[in-house]
Structures are given as C-alpha cells and as structure tokens.
# Entry
Amino acid sequence: MNTDTNINNENDTHTPPPSPKSPRPVGGRGRLSRYVSTTNACKLCKPLGACLAFRGIEGTVPYLHGSQGCATYMRRYIISHFNEPIDIASSSLGEKNAIYGGGANLKQGLKNVTDKYRPKMVGIATTCLTETIGDDLNMIVHEYLKEAGETAEAPILVKVSTPSYSGTHMEGFHAAVLSAVETLCRKTLANDRVNILPGFLSPADLRYLKEVMAEFDLEATILPDISETLDGPALDEYQLIPEGGTPIEEIRTMGGAEATIEFGSTISPKESGGEYLEKTYGVENHRLTMPVGVGATDRFFALLETLSGQEIPERYVKARGRLIDSLVDGHKYIFGKRAVLYGEEDLVVGLAGFLAEIGVQPVLCASGGKSGRLREKVLEATNGLCEVDPEAYEDIDFHEIEARAAELEPDLIIGHSKGYALARKLSIPLIRVGFPIHDRVGGQRILHIGHEGAQQLFDLIANAMIQVKQDRSPVGYSYM
Amino acid sequence: MTAQIYEERRNQIHRKGKKPFAIECDKESLAGAVSQRACVFCGSRVVLYPIADAVHLVHGPIGCAVYTWDIRGALSSGPELHRLSFSTDLREKDVIFGGEKKLHDALIELIDRYQPKAAFVYSTCIVGIIGDDLEAVCKKVAAETDIPVLPVQSEGFKGNKRAGYEAACKAMFRLVGTGDLANISRHSINILGDFNLAGEIWLIRDYFARMGVEVVANITGDGRVDDIKRAHGAALNVVQCSGATMTLAEMMKEKYSTPVIRVSYFGIEDMAESLYAVADHFQDEEMLAKAKKIVREELETLLPELKKYRAALTGKKAAIYVGGAFKAFSLVKAFRHLGMDVVMVGSQTGTKEDYRELQEITDDGTIVVDDSNPLELSSFLREKEVDIFVGGVKERPIAYKLGIAFCDHNHERKEMLAGFAGMMNFAREVYGSVMSPVWKLVPRKQSQTTQLGVSEAARIAES
Ligand code: SF4
Ligand code: SF4
# Structure
C-alpha cells in the first residue's frame, strides 16, 4: 500500500496529509489536505437526522427548537428524496427570542402542535441557534409540563440536543434513538422480543427487515421505522401524522427483550441505544455491520438462527443461492473495477465489504462523518480481499473527494445523488444508494440489505459496467 | 374543516365574499404551526444565488450551506461558481472562540482557488449570536485580495425572507456605481428580479434586443459582478416581482435617479405589458412598434396552440401558494387564459396591498391566505375540490398525497414559464398534470365515483 496517499491515523482521521512537509495546497490540486472551508459537504446537519428518526416513531411530530429556516430547509430536503409530506414543527424564533431566550416560543409551539396534531409524542431537537443562546431545554420543558398540567392527551416529550457544530445528521439520528429509548424504556418483565436498531435504512430495507423477522418467527421492535411514515400510500384524507412508525408501547418494553441487534459499526458506544439497553437493562447488544452483501447478510442471518432457534427459512436460502449464482454469471464484467464510495459511514462500510467480496476495488471510501472508526471498519469489512487496501477518509467534502477520485481513475461511483456532478465530470456511472436521491424517483424504494438488496445492487453495478463497455464500443454489440 | 385553523391565524385568512376585505400579514410565523416559510438567509441566498462569477460563502454551521447547494434552476451562460456550496462549517471551538479567523482564511482560500470577481459572505443565525464582525473581516479580505468582499447580513432569525431580500440588495448596492460607464446606449435597462430559471432571462433579453433595448445588468439571473458594477449606467430599472429586488431599485433611484417600472413576465398580458411599458418609458414610437410586432408574432403561434389546452381545462379549479404575492397575480391571470378558476391563493410573505389586489382580481368565495401551513393548505385543497395546485417543493407532496395535480412554480423548477414561450410551457405543464389518467386511480377520485354512484343510485331509486 502506498502510504504516501493514505495516512490516516486514528486520532486525527480527517487530516490525511500527503506528506508532513507539504504546504497548504493551492488550487484544486491539493491531495486530501485539510482545507479551511467546506465545499459541497458530504454530510447534513445534526437535527435533520433527529427529525428522520423521530418520524419513525408512532404518532410523533418532529419539532425543532430554533428559527423557522432550519425546519423548512430540512423539510424541503427530506421531501425531495421521499416525495412524502413531512411536517417538522418549529419554535420559529425571532430576533427578540434570540436575545431573551426561546422558552416562550417553545411552550407555545408545543401547545399548538398538541392542539392541532394530537401527537402521541413530540420529538424535540435543538438547533445551532438555541444551543448557542443556551436555552435550557430540560428546564423549559419541565416548566411547560407544570404549566400545562397533566392531561390525558398530553404527548410524551422526548428531547435531544443536536447542535450541528458537533456532529452530522447521523449523530443526530442516533442521539434521537438513544433519547427515545432512555425516555420511554421502563423496567419490564423479560419478553422474547428482539430489538433492532437499524440506523438510517430506506423504507424498502425496513419492509424487508420486517419480513425477515416474521419468517424467523421473531417478534421485533424496529426503532425507528420509517417504512410507512415516509413511504405511505395515496390517500383521500390528509393525515397530519401518517400511520406507522415504531409503536411506543413496544419501545417501552425494549428493556425486557431477549437481545438487541444494532446495525452499524462506527457508532460511538456512548451514542448507541443498544449499548444503553445492555448497560441499563442487561439486554445483550449485537453490533453488526449493516447487512449489505453476502458476508454481512450471512452474519446477520446466523445471529437470527441463534436467536430464534430456527434454521434460515428456505426462501432466504434460495435467495442466497440465486445471488451467488448471479455473482458467478456476472463476475467478469466487474472484476477489478475501481469504485469510489461515499456517504454515511456505516453505509460506506457495508458497501465496501460487499464490493470487496464481488471483486470490485473500493479505492476510495469517503464520508463527511467523523467517528474516528471509518478506516478501521472499512479494512475490517474488506478483510484482505482487495489488491490494495482502500483509502478511507472522514470529515471530507466533495471538493476533496473529487480531487482524489480524479487521481484514482475509478470506473464507477456509488453513493447518493450529490455525487452526480463528479460522475458527470469523470464520465462514469453513478450507482445511487442511500440518502438523498434528489435526481431520480424511488429513493425510498432502494433496497440495500439482505440477499435481495445485494442482488439488486449487483445487477445495477454489473449492468452499468456492461453499458459503459457497450456505449464505448465502436461495434455496439447487442449481446454480452 | 375550520378546526384546521389556528385561532391565532384566523385573521391571516380571508374568504372573498360579503365581508369587507381584511387580512393580517407580515407577522412572525406562529410557533409550532409548520410554516412553509424559510428564513432571512434563504431570502438573501435566493436573490444573490444566480450571480455566477462570485463565491458565495455561507458563514455558519454546515446545514444552512448544504441545504442550498445547487438547488435552483438558475442557469449561467458562463462560469458556474454559484452552483457550488461553500461553508465555513463552524465547529464547537469556533462557536466558543469566534469564527472570524476561520472566515478570513476560508475566504482567502476560496478566492485563491477560484479567482472570483467578488465574494458574498452570508451571515447565519449563530453568527449573529457569537458576534463575529463580518464587516471587518470582509474589509480585510477585500484589501488583501483586491476584489469586492460583501457581507450579507442575513441572520435567519432577524425576520422572514423579505428581510433577506433587503439584505441581499444592500450587499449588491455596494457594487453598483463602481464600474465603467463607457458605451452604454440611451435605450438601456437593467433587468431586476428575474433569476434565469431554465433560461428565462435569455428569452426576455431576446425580446428586448429585438426592440433595440440594451440590457446593462441582469439582476441577478445569469448575473455577473462587472455588469452589476455598471448597473447605474442604465437608463431604467425594470423590476419584476414584488419584493426580491425592489429595494435595490429604490436605492438606485435615490442615489442615481434611475427610474423604476414594475413588470411581470408571466402570462400573456403581463408579458406584453412589460414590453410596452419599456417602450412607453423611452417614448419611442419605433420601439413600441417593434414591441407590438413581437407580441403579434408570438401570439400568432401561441394562441391557436393554447386553444387546445383551454378546451380541455376550462372549468377546472386551481389553487396557488407561492413565496411572493406578485407571482400570484400573474398566475391568476394565466389560469384565466386557460379557462380555469382560482379558488385559493396565498403567499409566504405578501403585504396587505398584495392581498387586497389579489382578492380584487379573484372571484367570490376564493380563499386568500398569508403564511399558511400543511394543515390549512390540505384542508383548503379538499374543501375547494381543487384540480391543480401551484407551489414549490414543500407544497408538492401535500397535493400528491391527496391525489391532486401539481405545477412547480418556484426557484427549483426546470421548466421555463416566463415569456410567451413560457405561457405555452405553463399550459402544457398544467395540462400534463391535470389530464393525467393517474388521478382516476387515486382514492380521492375513486371515493368520489362511488359517492356519485351512490347518489345516482339513490336518484334512480327515488324516481
Ligand atoms: S443552523 Fe444548524 S440546525 Fe439550522 S440548518 Fe444550520 S446547521 Fe442545521
Ligand atoms: S440557522 Fe438561521 S440562517 Fe441557517 S437555515 Fe436556520 S434559520 Fe436560516
């Protein structure tokens, strides 16, 4: 491995300088050296993740304590991917509040949301503004509850602190999950349910996951669950809060579950709901990489076998068989192809593992996240299957990704739609995965996990490579 | 139905009818009401965004910048710096110790990297709180780099989008008056308030070119810093839209005595009126004749084509919810051309005058609404049995979820809707959505059919 291009030490993962002596890079040619500014970020802001997670809980309205703009921007961003309404309430702070504090607005906002939406729960996330002015969320909410008095309709209030200057949308997502668990879980009798903390998966992934659990005869609490709340049917009547989401009653009993399965290997243990449940209630936490690809899916299914005491249901055995068969059929078209990956760290780790096992070289694994674990986990996932160990960079933006990608001469790009400009510049295909997909329909229907997800990804990748060859061929063969 | 309206917002909704016109507006959004509004920063960003040879650096945490990355359909015929998203990406330590140094270094870095003609620096909410002195940093960097570096005081919480327009205008005003005025024709204008979505300003410029009018600066569609610098050399400011760039026109009027006319390029009458108004201003018969010729020629092709759409769309009902009210006027008229009725019209930031005019040009029963939210909008759409809703991305899923057609009419659209050709596109887009057979499949229509079926059956039973 060429260490010259790949220094990535544990403590300062976002600064992989080309060499100690190299000056601050000038122009766009700098090789992953740290710039002061961020150009075309490869991350989103923390409260957005919290809103997404809250949206996956039954009867919950996500609420941002901040000025109006943040909520509106996030709604727009989320809508453009899911093509679904998402109401995010806001304290709509104005100038006065920024000076004297936003408590009064928060209280009024909570009251209004309660009156009109009749939510079971309100998921309150702070924003940069309210963190900076130092609003004490706990105190304000406490006062609010006292003033409002106990009523039957009063929603549960879950609070989470999400200043964007410390963490990306994924930290916000996990923080919201953790806070929901902390707030709702009670000591309960042991039950034989299984908790799943899937992280930020697509609605299609979550539907698949539910099906798998049902096939194993396991009762699962999947938190959060946006499979319906962000991918609902056409309706006659506008639902203020869509049906679906993780039932609150189920969350309450998560402490009594048999085990927790947590997808994602880069989450810090402090921020993990699974670790919390283990520490507080003794529910064993199984951390798995996101089950993308054969190996990771096998590990997931093996765990389900153990937990359920049942063998893998036949349909999945068959699906796996078909997948392997197709990998054989198509292996030549993709062998040795070089891929650039970017996005949320856990997704990148999962994808890197999958690519490595099918013979694609993930030459660059990039994320705007900053867990400090990306490189280690990518290497673990690719496990010596790559000719050259993949480069992995955290806290990176698209300006840096572009510069490095151009040097690495990739054949394809895998990530969300914000990499389109890069794909276009390099004239190579972009395989769209993750969030956001702002330039295609169906982002919410992309299946990433399990054998079926791997199958779909594989077909996309293989066909993209075949198409490149076909398009560039002077003959234009109409067969492979 | 009325249960969907917040008590506090009751006066921000007017139903045209027997009661005299009264509406409240220009208020801060109600907390918890899921306003469709954005913030001051958004307003500034929208106005300045299309200036394609400037660096637009958002000073703040990452969100504000990342959510505005390449989100508009504003095209450039040359450089495309505006399509990149630059942020100082403030972190915890910057918030504690201040972000001035980071801002300075970021500016130097970006100016070095892209060699822009100017840099705009947007202030966001927390910058307003941590107290960075934007003005001072900009001044310093301007001196070091020898390009204009312009602070935009757009802290999100300091008002709504309109305040952002003003902040943007103030920033641009610093550029105006610094350019060379050589060789500007007597018949010259600046186009203000067109953002070149899908190339609209090129179309408008072509009309003006055919009239013999020189355009000095596009403000800001396909905009260039050097053009804006010499904008004070134009003989007339032609301003579209109610809020966005009016402040700049007013400031120029005061300082440079540049006269102002207000126009709209949406819809047939308004487009034609715009050309005539410019010709009238220059009191030039020949120019007016040319304008008339353009209108005649364009209508010769447009009107016969429109007929087909009109035939299909007559009697259908439309609802409008847009950012600024001025666009709503044109839309009401445009719908009339298609034989359609506007049954609801609203905006995020209209003024009392805007709303008064709106209710005057609409029919009885029409709902006029200020700063609405999904709750109200969805109930209005259902109450009025709307066939098509016009709005932006945030309104789209409300319509679609209820099985109602939709037309995108905001800054993100990729269809040209201005000018005569734009009217054609508009008709096509409305037609293409309203007439889609998919509405036959949605629950709303199916339940209507069953209801119809039931009443039909009841009638038959009675007779
Ligand atoms: S202020 Fe913070 S929370 Fe709001 S959009 Fe910006 S980064 Fe996100
Ligand atoms: S932080 Fe302020 S400026 Fe940024 S999006 Fe939110 S409201 Fe707007």
User: Anything to note?
Assistant: Residues 315-472 of chain A form a domain with the Rossmann fold fold (CATH 3.40.50.1980). The two ends of chain A are 34 Å apart (CA to CA). Residues A 45, 47, 66, 70, 73, 127-129, 164; B 60-64, 125 surround iron/sulfur cluster (ligand 1) (CB under 6 Å).
